[in-house]
Amino acid sequence: MSLPAKSRHGRPAGRLSASRWVLIGLALALVVTVGVYTYNSSEQQGPSAQAPVVPGGKAPDKSCTPTAQLVPPCGAWWGMHVPPGDNPNMRPSLTAMEQKLGRKLDITISYHDMSDSDSGRFFRNDESQVVNDHILLLAWESSIWQDNLDIAWRDIAAGHYDQAITDQAARVKKYGKPILVGFDGEKDRDESGQTPAEYVAAYKRIVDGFRKAGATNALWVWGVTGYYPFRDRWKAYYPGHSYVDWISYDPYNFATCRGATWQDFKQTVQPTYNWFQQNGFANKPLMLAEYGTESHKSDASARADWYLDIPEAMKTMPNLKAIIQWNNVDADRCDFSLTGPGVVQAFAEAGKDPYFRQPMVRQPTG
Question: 186 catalytic, yes or no?
């Protein structure tokens, strides 16, 4: 696996400039996954007013109903980050992609900073639309974009941002349905001089703030790069089992972009998966908050084959419960978009596997 680059991913369109915006980790930041929807992850376009049904018209097996932690017992959620382009409303680009794929995505991503502005506050109008029929990952980053300000973990831990935490917690509590929240993923690669202990203290301050405010519908996600040579760093950043409901990591097959050795999906994903299973984290569901592949230098069909291999590979990693393809070009011009011969078709075919057709049902309110 090639070393992940600093500032790897580009900013979504419409965002004010920031000195360091990296679209990584739990979508790089404080990630909120909203899970409250009533639809079956199939070809239908638009929310259903009825209980979900599986293809063939049968009611879903109750044993496959997602848990209170939004974990699908019988498979995994199928998702994608779809760049909105110049339109700050994410719905049009998301709908257009779903039409290409012939199915609705289960999960998608949006982004927020820690300001008390539209950039920071949950939930924007377009998010309110998307959340009706998707799991929405809201990435809350420890920065203020307009001021090009990166917020120090020690300042969060010291209580300087308690009001921002309390305000967001109130919005989440008002929303009332299960939400996955994570803080600054992929910080195992942080080069700012901050320490793992400062990260853990900031993370706990946020979780405790939400709990104190009564936002008990928040479920907590913790994420790392997944870059295997960093594995000795991961436990130092871990805030403890009582503060974590999901674990995420972000594997990429960089290939031609970094002169790396080509790896198929399983080779890209499984080493870190195995590490978590073998090092005291097997009781936590895993997600790929981002993943993707570059093109192959000499095999034009390799990228399509990479995606076609996903369903069978996923069935060998049963604790991996959500995967979100990052359909974009990063800051280093590494291209993880679904481009090339047959790639969109291959991704669409993989997403139609029954393993990724889990019933999305309404969750109980907190």
Answer: yes
